[in-house]
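Please decode residue identities from the backbone states below.
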């Protein structure tokens, strides 16, 4: 089978298309045929050696996918051969990969492979950040980076929870984010969010740096800031009387099932920017690395 992997850390030129033996599932694993691959920023960060996680080389890139079960788990599983599935498989830049039954979910016929492959990491990140913040009806929520694949899902999920949503985005994304239900979208190119939103109960931070630091001034006492990009100053949060949470996404089958049900019933829109052929994995990672697209980049395998 074909895989895209790297034998040393570095730039996108380190990615190579290679032929390797098809893997054999062990206890609790399923062999899946990959149809579509979701490209995430963590993919290029691992390749570049810019994460705390240092894998053993060589590494087959990727984790998000949608496809079909080829061989079932040796342990009991409700996902039989031929089942359409999506979720996480380590080394998903491949024609076949191994997935644990608890890391994938059934894919309804009404949802396409590409839509499903765009969901796992962004969808669970958005959903679990809102869960960590305990977002509920009537609260005011400020979402930074609302035009991206995570931010656009977080905006919709917060609206569905009954929150009043304020969002920041770059100029080209302002109209799109407004269509998702945000009460007010602040154009970062022309406005400072703290001059618009006043005090909020929750900040969902997908940007970090100075944007996060400035957000400390708008979080209410007993409010919460949840960030996926690391805390700039955790001590300042305590001094101002709000919680600050450095968030890390967890793979969870139940959350995958909830997400795909919302997509199936047209409650969630997935923002797909580009779909490239599998051999163009280098370009796909470059697009995410350099921020050249708005939304999700996918690779089509079959």
């Amino acid at each position: 089978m074909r895989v895209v992997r790297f034998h040393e850390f570095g730039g996108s030129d380190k990615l190579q298309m290679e032929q390797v033996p098809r893997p054999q599932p062990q206890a609790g694993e399923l062999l899946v045929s990959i149809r579509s691959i979701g490209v995430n920023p963590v993919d290029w960060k691992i390749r570049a050696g810019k994460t705390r996680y240092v894998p053993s080389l060589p590494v087959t890139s990727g984790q998000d996918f949608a496809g079909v079960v080829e061989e079932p788990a040796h342990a009991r599983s409700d996902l039989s051969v031929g089942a359409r599935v999506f979720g996480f498989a380590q080394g998903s830049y491949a024609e076949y990969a191994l997935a644990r039954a608890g890391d994938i979910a059934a894919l309804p016929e009404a949802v396409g492979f590409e839509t499903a492959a765009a969901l796992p990491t962004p969808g669970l990140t958005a959903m679990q950040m809102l869960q960590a913040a305990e977002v509920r009806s009537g609260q005011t929520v400020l979402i930074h980076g609302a035009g991206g694949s995570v931010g656009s899902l977080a905006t919709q999920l917060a609206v569905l929870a009954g929150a009043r949503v304020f969002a920041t985005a770059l100029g080209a994304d302002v109209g799109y984010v407004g269509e998702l239900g945000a009460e007010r979208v602040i154009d970062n190119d022309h406005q400072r969010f703290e001059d618009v939103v006043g005090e909020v109960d929750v900040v969902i931070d997908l940007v970090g740096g100075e944007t996060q630091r400035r957000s400390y001034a708008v979080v209410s006492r007993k409010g919460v800031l949840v960030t996926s990009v690391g805390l700039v100053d955790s001590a300042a949060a305590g001094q101002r009387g709000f919680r600050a949470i450095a968030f890390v996404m967890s793979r969870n089958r139940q959350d995958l099932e909830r997400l795909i049900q919302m997509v199936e019933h047209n409650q969630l829109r997935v923002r797909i920017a580009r779909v490239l052929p599998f051999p163009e994995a280098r370009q796909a990672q470059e697009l995410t690395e350099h921020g050249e697209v708005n939304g999700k980049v996918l690779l089509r395998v079959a």
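Observation: The longest strand covers residues 29-39.
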